[in-house]
Design goal:
single chain; about 325 residues; mainly beta; Immunoglobulin-like; 3 domains; five-stranded antiparallel beta sheet; 1 helix; about 10% helix
Amino acid sequence: MPAKGRRGVIAGGVIGLVLVAFGVFVLPFAFTTPPPIITRFVATRAFSPAADQGRALATVAVRLSEPSNVAITVKDPDTGTIVARLSDGNRVVRSRTLAVRWDGRDLNGRQVPDGTYAIDLDARAGEKKFSKSRRVVVDTAPPRPQVTVSTTATGCTAVASAPGEPATIAFSAPTAGVRAPVQQVGARGQAEWRWNGRDGRGQLVPPGLQSIRVVARDERGNQSDRAVTCWVGHLQARAVPGQPSSGDAVGVVLPGGGDPEVALTLRRRVGTPGGPVGRQVLGGAVGQPVTGPASTARITIPAGTDPADVWLLAARGDDRQALIGFREGDG
């Protein structure tokens, strides 16, 4: 091939490469693909219509690239039945953003059952169309931990376990004005509070039944609220004998040395600490009280009285008391 011809072929190849490079690197920027009419579509993933503090609504947020008709419906994902209409799509939305909320009610204003629902979005702008779906969970069931409260020598120990879902647990002694720090637990976790029987000013609360409130709250704002009792006496004591029989004389042993004076009283057993607030524990007196040094003071369980049916109340002169039972499991 003549040199002039070869030069022409080479020049043509160079031009071809330039045109390809122009098409690959330049044209996409010169003729960009127009954005979809909906550039953002987000929705609350889970909520509770029964919640408070502003969490009782599901929010759906949409961002538009141009004026569009936007229809947003809530449907049963299994049947496709329309449950609620959040935007009917009959009017043109000219703003860049659209936000709607759902309170968990159906077309007839009734609260929908707990479960998963589909939030369908359908938009159109001229010949353009856009469809997308999100899921939202309606959950009004509160966490329900198992609550136990036991009496200690100085106060109470409260335990809340296995709420069934991740939750925060808040303990308090309302009448004493004391709150414990909020604890986060898992579905099978456990929270514990050891209360020392003192009020918000650090003073000992009066001996007797105290209420412990336990509030469990999930991330959707559902909460359970339970209050149970515990005995606070500020006195550690044990009965001797520990398992008496009807007609036996019973005394107490106080740790710490010394021989302080104590008053011993038998009271009819009508309940046990740890029950609901309002349920009584101590009934009327059984027999006559006895007062004397702890080493010698003895009170007799009347003949015919089952020891399991009475409480022994031991009190010192400094307003400290111990509640002692004779049933298996009494601490």
